[in-house]
Specification:
mainly alpha; 6 helices; Rossmann fold; globular; 52% helix
Length: 153
């Protein structure tokens, strides 16, 4: 954080928080009108901890967690649920630089109880739950899907 410019920090916040805010507010009126809906924000386990390297990113992901909580309080009376999924390292194109780096992959999997990184369909399962009637009494929550990384230190 010490070396980041305001422009860089703002870009991260715009991409990870403000863009979510805008998209949610585009979809929410219809959900509120029909008194039914589920908003799912994909955050990150980075929002749950500090980092020597990814501070601004982690701050933005923590803001997403609070965005979900606040909107859940505001829209609960309309039966609109708002939740977050906080994945650990997942084999996606976005995270390719991390999981293709042998040192990073080894470091992550060495401290993760399941001993591996996640796959996209494992994150999708949490989204299906939150979007379905099975998740109809879940709001303002963060579902961590990280192979146990956050519990292992």
């Amino acid at each position: 954080m010490a070396g980041i410019s305001d422009v860089q920090f703002r870009k991260i916040l715009d991409n990870n928080v403000l863009a979510n805010h805008w998209l949610i507010h585009m979809a929410a009126p219809g959900m509120i009108e029909r008194k039914d809906g589920s908003v799912i924000i994909v955050s990150s386990i980075g929002g749950l901890k500090g980092s020597k390297v990814l501070g601004a990113y982690n701050i933005s992901k923590a803001a997403d967690l609070q965005l979900a909580r606040n909107l859940a309080v505001e829209w609960g009376r309309h039966n609109v649920r708002v939740n977050c999924i906080a994945p650990g390292l997942v084999r996606t194109d976005f995270a390719r630089a991390l999981w293709e780096n042998p040192e990073t992959l080894k470091a992550v999997t060495a401290t993760t109880p399941l001993g591996r990184i996640g796959e996209a369909d494992e994150i999708a399962g949490a989204a299906v739950y939150l979007a379905s009637s099975a998740g109809s009494f879940t709001t303002g929550q963060v579902i961590v899907v990280d192979g146990g990384a956050t519990i292992a230190g």
